[in-house]
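Technical annex, item 7. During the second reporting period the consortium partners agreed on a shared format for inverse folding records so that results from different sites could be compared directly. Each record opens with the tokenized structure and is followed by the designed sequence. A conforming record, contributed by the partner at site C, is shown below for reference.
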């Protein structure tokens, strides 16, 4: 757009005029970041009064449900509208059939109920994929070395209904199986959960940036091979647009791009081509890079954190899932 506008040349135009003071910069600033833009991904672990540091994510801890409830209350009071729950699953609960995934009383569902009870206004998002419960660490069933699609979708539907029954507001299918959005949407309709939203992990890439997360949920040990037959090729952009169209047509309410910063072009295309709510996931590896460099004194961690989040807004995102959420919300609150 701006390239077609005729602008005078120097010295009539001196773009630095509008940068000369903080107040002036604020007046012409094109984007703002608020706590409303943040979704906080959290890790829940079994037990009581339990708090374990995640080594590869400095500042991030797995919390038992009682502590997580308190953390959710604090986050909501800081203005963060939503939390996204990821369970650390005890290896003894990982099986071939992944039945723990739809156990109404699994750790994730316990956490949903407890947070809903204590902080009912807060939006609770979930993760739908079999990897925390799968003995081989994959998001889907493995049959003869292949990650099978349709049987996995049946299991994901059961998992989705258990989460909705527990009180989840937003379901996040992160598995990348084909047909799962339609199947989950259909089941939600017939089970009386018409108002449960789906934020689909639509453009989820087979990325090296998920490493620390797999440590946090205890999945790295189990995973054999890679996820390239279901997660996207980092080289592709048109394919992501086809997946956005597909997920919307199957009943997704919002879509996600993941990882975040290396894929801002995908965020921008999705927003401008579809005009639906678009979220980015600033994933564990992105968080770890910023923290590691900051801890070494190589970058100003706070500055880079705030700048990275503003970049998501500029790219057109409606919000960002970020492990920085409470830190950012505190800064925004002054
Ligand atoms: C699993 C899942 C992953 C993440 C969210 N859900 C990891 C993966 O696909 O291997 C990654 C989040 C992060 O790295 O912060 N379905």
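Designed sequence (site C submission):
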């Amino acid at each position: 757009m701006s390239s077609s506008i005729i602008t005078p040349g120097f010295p009539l135009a001196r773009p630095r005029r509008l940068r000369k003071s903080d107040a002036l910069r604020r007046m012409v600033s094109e984007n703002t970041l608020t706590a409303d833009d943040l979704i906080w991904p959290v890790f829940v672990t079994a037990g009581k009064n339990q708090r374990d540091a995640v080594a590869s994510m400095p500042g991030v801890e797995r919390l038992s449900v009682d502590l997580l409830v308190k953390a959710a209350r604090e986050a909501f009071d800081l203005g963060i509208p939503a939390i996204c729950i990821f369970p650390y699953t005890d290896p003894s609960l990982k099986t071939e059939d992944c039945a723990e995934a739809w156990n109404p009383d699994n750790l994730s569902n316990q956490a949903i109920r407890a947070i809903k009870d204590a902080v009912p206004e807060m939006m609770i998002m979930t993760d739908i994929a079999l990897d925390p419960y799968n003995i081989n660490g994959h998001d889907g069933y493995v049959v003869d070395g292949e990650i099978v699609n349709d049987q996995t979708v049946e299991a994901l539907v059961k998992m989705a209904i258990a989460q909705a029954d527990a009180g989840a507001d937003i379901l996040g299918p992160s598995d990348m199986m084909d047909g799962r959005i339609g199947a989950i949407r259909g089941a939600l309709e017939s089970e009386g959960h018409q108002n449960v939203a789906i934020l689909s992990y639509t453009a989820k890439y087979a990325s090296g940036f998920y490493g620390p997360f797999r440590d946090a949920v205890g999945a790295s040990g189990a995973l054999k091979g890679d996820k390239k037959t279901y997660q996207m090729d980092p080289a592709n952009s048109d394919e992501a647009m086809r997946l956005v169209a597909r997920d919307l047509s199957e009943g997704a309410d919002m879509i996600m791009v993941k990882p975040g910063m290396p894929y801002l072009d995908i965020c921008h295309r999705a927003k401008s081509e579809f005009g639906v709510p678009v979220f980015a996931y600033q994933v564990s590896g992105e968080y770890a890079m910023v923290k590691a460099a900051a801890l070494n004194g190589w970058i100003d961690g706070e500055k880079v954190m705030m700048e990275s989040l503003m970049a998501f807004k500029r790219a057109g995102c409606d919000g960002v899932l970020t492990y920085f959420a409470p830190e950012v919300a505190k800064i925004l609150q002054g």
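The longest strand covers residues 38-45. The chain has one domain: 38-333. All partners now use this format for quarterly exchanges.
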